[in-house]
Amino acid sequence: HGGRPDAVRNDADTVMRFLFLLAFCTAGPALAESVIATRVIRAQTILSAMDMALVDAEIPGALTDLSAAIGQETRTTLYPGRAIRESDLGAPTIIERNQIIPLTYSAGGLRIETDGRALARGGAGDMIRVMNISSRNTVSGRVIADGTVQVGQTP
């Protein structure tokens, strides 16, 4: 029975290969980290590192880097253990609703400035509606970091 030990050895090799492949395939990829809130965070709160934590879980749509959220303002209330998504955050508000703000229009060499009343809150880069105080017309414009709202073309 000279062939039988080889058959057992081949079966043992096959079993070892199967176990190796099984272990390799079921180990799976390392999970991504997701950012979650550590406490109730009300809307319009500026986030700090103490407000959130990283967890070893891949939560669809969640931020994966704490630094992306630090200094941002919450747009909605966030609850402990819940994922923080990009849509939950925005630039810190620099214009409040009903605030009188400089409204500018620039096109080519022409620049017109007037006062407007903000009809919404907004941070740098946000589009908000503003009522021109002189004409009472409502226009939309982009909030600039200096607190003005730019309508029309940018210089």
Topology readout:
Blueprint: H1 4-27, E1 34-37, E2 52-55, E3 73-74, E4 89-90, E5 93-95, E6 100-107, E7 110-118, E8 122-123, E9 127-132, E10 138-143, E11 149-151
Explain what you see.
Strands 6-7-9-10-11 form a five-stranded mixed beta barrel. A two-stranded antiparallel ribbon has the order 1-2. A two-stranded antiparallel sheet has the order 3-4. It has one helix and eleven strands; from the N terminus they run H-E-E-E-E-E-E-E-E-E-E-E. 15% of the residues lie in helices and 32% in strands. The chain is of the alpha+beta class. The model has no long low-confidence stretch (mean pLDDT 85). The protein has one helix at 4-27, and strands spanning 34-37, 52-55, 73-74, 89-90, 93-95, 100-107, 110-118, 122-123, 127-132, 138-143, 149-151. A hairpin with a 5-residue loop joins strand 9 and strand 10.
Q: What is the helix tally?
A: 1
The overall pLDDT average reads 85
User: Which radius of gyration do the C-alpha atoms yield?
Assistant: 29 Å
Strand arrangement, major sheet: 6-7-9-10-11
- Helix and strand content put the structural class at alpha+beta
Shape annotation: elongated
Unreliable residue runs:
none
Quaternary class: single chain
Largest sheet: number of strands, sense, barrel closure: 5 strands, mixed, barrel
The count of strands amounts to 11
Q: What is the helix content?
A: 10-25%
